[in-house]
Amino acid sequence: MKPRMNTDKNASRDHLWLQHMSKHIVATVNEIPVGGRKLVEIEGRSIGVFNLGGEFFALKSRCPHQGGPLCEGKVGSLVEADVPGAYTLSRPGEMLRCPWHSWEFDIRTGQSWWHPARMRVAQYPVTVEDGAALESAGWQKGPYVAETFRVEVNQQYLLVEINP
Q1: CB within 8 A of 33, min separation 6: which ones?
Q2: Is residue 114 within 8 Å of 97, Cβ to Cβ?
Q3: Beta bridge partner(s), residue 106
Q4: Are 96 and 71 in contact (CB under 8 A)?
Q5: From its phi and psi, is residue 102 left (phi > 0), alpha (psi between -120 and 50) or beta?
Q6: In the prediction, which pLDDT does 1 show?
Q7: DSSP one-letter string for 72-124
Q8: How much is the pLDDT for 163?
């Protein structure tokens, strides 16, 4: 996915912003199936990461209308009509609807369907990188590790094993 670059008076500011972005590992490719999403928190921002046919897109989960949790909304198709009552659906799974007031946004671009020239949600570049390449580039596991427990299903009971 290519970073969004403005061609207006804010272009130089956006370019500086892109240069100072930091990368964060948020998931493995297999964690987000095609048509799925994962909500993550990065540096205090709630972000939704979406898989559209094997391409990944990330949007800030804050609707610009009234601050609703955008990325928790329904994902659907683009609905168009040339005349009243004659609807066509296209681009299945590419439109995100805010759960508060149903404002719709294009997951690929972050643009609002209501006013695409003025209204958009923040979009973040997503890259897919090989784990071995990340290790050779100096990425390391974080110092904090959550305590985990082995879980197994036995005769339809859930068992949690805690080591002494």
Answers
A1: 51
A2: no
A3: 95
A4: yes
A5: left
A6: 40
A7: GSEEEEEEEESSTT-EEEEEEEEEEE-TTT--EEETTT-BBSS-TTT-B--EE
A8: 58
Of 81, 82, 84, 61, whose CA–CA distance to 73 is shortest? 61
Domains detected in the chain:
11-139 (2.102.10.10)
Task: List Cβ neighbours of 136 (8 Å cut-off, separation of 6 or more).
Answer: none
C-beta of residue 37 within 8 angstroms of C-beta of residue 71 = yes
Q: Smallest Cα–Cα separation from 121: which of 90, 152, 95?
A: 95
Give the span between the Cα atoms of 20 and 12, in whole angstroms. Answer: 13
pLDDT in tens, the chain (164 residues): 433 433 444 444 444 444 456 788 888 888 899 999 999 998 888 999 999 999 999 999 999 888 899 999 999 877 888 899 898 887 888 899 999 998 899 999 999 877 767 788 988 999 888 777 777 777 766 666 677 888 776 655 655 555 56
Nearest Cα residue to 95 out of 84, 105, 85: 105
> In this structure, what token pair is assigned to residue 138?
């100096």
Residue type present at position 87: Y
Which pLDDT value is given to residue 62? 93
